[in-house]
Amino acid sequence: QSALTQPASVSGSPGQSITISCTGTSSDVGGYSHVSWYQQHPGKAPKVMIYDVSNRPSGVSNRFSGSKSGNTASLTISGLQAEDEADYYCSSYTSSSTWVFGGGTKLTVL
Amino acid sequence: EVQLVQSGAEVKKPGESLKISCKASGYSFTSYWIGWVRQMPGKGLEWMAIIYPGDSDTRYSPSLQGQVTISADKSIRTAYLQWSSLKASDTAMYYCGRLMGRNEELPFDFWGQGTLVTVSS
Question: Which of B62, B95, B109 sits opposite A98 (nearest CB)?
Answer without folding.
Answer: B62
